Amino acid sequence: MLFLLCFLLVHLSGIACNFATDKEALLSFKSQVIDPQNTLSSWTTDSQHCKWYGVKCSNIGRRVKSLNLRGLSLSGKLPSQLSKLTYLHSLDLSANSFHGQIPPDISYLSLLNILFLSSNNLSGTIPPQLGQLKRLHSLDLSVNNLTGEIPSTLCNLSSLKYLAIARNHLSGEIPTQIGNLGNLSQLQLSENDLSGQLPSSLFHISQLTYLSVTSNNLSGKFPASLGFSLPNIKNLSLATNRFEGPIPHFISNSSQLEYLDLSNNFFNGNLPLFNNFENLVYLALGNNSLSSTTSLNSQFFDSLTNSTKLQVLILYHNNLAGELPSSIQNLSTKLYWFCVADNFLTGKIPQGWKKLQNLEFLSFESNHFSGELPSEIGSLSNLVELTIDDNVLSGEIPDIFGNLTSLSIISMAYNQFTGRIHQSIGQCKGLNSLYIGMNKLGGTIPKEIFDLPGLVGDGRFLTNESSEYSTQSYSIEVDNHSVHHWRRKAEECVDAVIRVGLSCTAQQPKDRCTMRDTSIKLQAIRKSMLAL
Fold it and tell me: Which pTM was predicted?
């Protein structure tokens, strides 16, 4: 009995000592950070720390179990006193303005399950000591200024399910031991300066549902031996790297995919097929060197007809050739983005667009399409952008604008359209860019165009000013204001090119413009220059 009493006294005194230490550690933390919103005003010496803002305690012993100070505009360095909160299971200091290095002493928090330090200004390397947090299942260090390599010790965290270190300045190769993280479900490494190949062990993590390595300097081919890898992958983004060779074969077996972005690489070979991808929502294969023929186009689009959830289909800047099949009309009715720009496609633009009523962005520009523009496009009342410039389309532009009241951009330049612009274009109240130059249009400019506030009312320009009308049937008086307008627009184009160049050559990969954004910006500049 005496022994039991002594044990209880020692145990209770230990608990009292521990929660007192927790309180002291929190007060020390408060004294070393800047709290502009005064959110930590409840943290006082004469109040219970378990009732403080952002603090949760255990039911027994009043030990600090969770500290959540997310998004409070706190700043300063991360105090090492955090390591004294030895009962801590969850620490979330994300979305603040902390700077300096991550304290290696955080590794003393041996019970930690969750560590979120994302969206701060933290710098230096990732402490290899974090690999000692054996119970950690969620680690987020994204959106900081961390440098150096990914410590291989992180691959010792066998309980880890979520690892995010995207949008930093990390370099070197992805550790080959990454495959040791057998429970990993999400891996976010995008927007760093990582190089080398993806470790083959990565593809043995069968639990992986999310993998993003977008915007790095990764390279290499994917071996055919990866045929049945990543069976549960739902989100896969390899975009904006230097991968080459055929589209990875394992993708054809990843039927759970919802989001697939392989754009801005050097993939080649034929367009892959996507049979039985019922959950696919986003498919981007743009800016590669993929090839096709009329027959392959038919097989490709036929394979997507089972993807009834598909919303985005991006195939721009490849080597696609041949004609588009009529089966495009059988694509998902949820499709809102369709882009096959900058390829070598021929023949007529197929009919059947009236079935795709959710389309907002429709792009056929820079191909070899011929024939007339399908009048069915006029039924797409949600259309925001229609770009069909730089083809050999002919005939009269159909009277399609009356129902396209959401249109913001119409780009039809560099074709062989004849006839006139219909008055119904005046119904496009949100129109701010109209490119119809270098055609064979005649007649007079509809006065309704000049009533469109976004096009002319705020100083934006109508790109139909002089030589675009090869029939000479349009006449626009050139005055000093027009000359000044031309010079101003020319200067803006030059300035825009310089800014794109600077953004592409930024020292840090995080600050560089992606290939997709660069392509979009250069296309916009090109259109502006054509309008001069």
Answer: 0.83
